[in-house]
Design brief:
Blueprint lengths: L1 E5 L6 H16 L1 E7 H4 L8 E5 L7 H18 L3 E4 L20 E5 L7 H11 L4 E4 L2 H11 L4 E3 L7 H5 L3 H7 L7 E6 L8 H5 L10 E7 L6 H10 L4 E5 L4 H10 L2 E4 L10 H8 L3 E5 L2 H9 L3 E4 L4 H11 L8 H9 L2 H14 L2
Helix pairs in contact: 1-15, 7-10
Length: about 350
Amino acid sequence: MKVLLVGLSSDGHRKQYLEYIAAVVSQHNQAVLLCPKACADDFCVTDKRVMKTEFEKKRTGKRYVQMLFQIRKAAIEEKVDIIHFLEADEIYRYFGFGLEILSKFRLVMTFHHLYTENWRNTAIQSIMRKIDCSVVHTKMLAEFYSTQLKHSHIKQIEYPVFDYEELLKISPIMAKMEYSLPLDKKIIGLLGGTLRYKGYHYLLENLQYLKKEGIHFLFAGNERDYTQSQIKEALEKNEVEGTVILRKLTSYEFRCAIQACDIILLPYGKEFNGASGPLAEGVCAGKRIVGSDHGSLGSLIGENHIGDTFESENGNDLIRVLNQVKESEFVYDEVAAEYQRSLRPEFFGEAYLQVYRQLL
């Protein structure tokens, strides 16, 4: 069995995702990586073939078609059995147009951010109908699309914590000292890139209603849609304690940020429906997760007993829940502990191998 792994936007968590699958496949079969040049330069090539390409994140229709022909050329030259698109999200806008040119091969696509409404939902279903297997990361989404499409080629694989063991080596006290955070207050973390769908404004616009005693916020990750000055201004205006570090974090710095927190806050809007990296890493570290009740996020928190939810896109309810949870302790029960164990990467790797084997 030979698999062509296609990475379209492989950076951060997506790069780890690609590297881990490539390593697992290489141990059992043969992996060929086709990924952006900047990303490909970082890969170890001792046990797999890495091909560099000039994939553009925002591609025109012409570039999209050129990309498909480039993928077909690589698949033919390498004599692969399976083509796996690791980020189907990047091709939604073309509704699966032209995938027929890859019909000689078994097609697998992984969908990270899914939308159960608007044109994207139509695009996702159009793509799923044209391929052999669709992988999603939450049970709710697998059930939704299996029902919508009336077939069973939708597979759910938990999004793992790739540095599971390394994360657990860092003590919470050491992590708080690393970021110069107070040891006598609950640290509420909003971590990762500050993208709009993460809904930080539902918190920032309602800080005046927060009971501020005994808490300290940590904002850490790439500065994107919400800026450092915007966040600091909201904190200072409402006299709320917080540390704001918006830049690209190293893997170690991100692990420290996770362990420094007592609560991981995910105020995501309804636009988001998928697996969350900070949620998974927070669960691995045994943290209390507080997040929106919408879609997969709400289902994951509720069904797995890993924290508390508030009404999605409702800033007042977000503050109400924060005011409650900051006063109480939280311990994982057996249901939460079982979900925590399921996030180990070895289960993830074996699940993908099973997907590939079933297609041949």
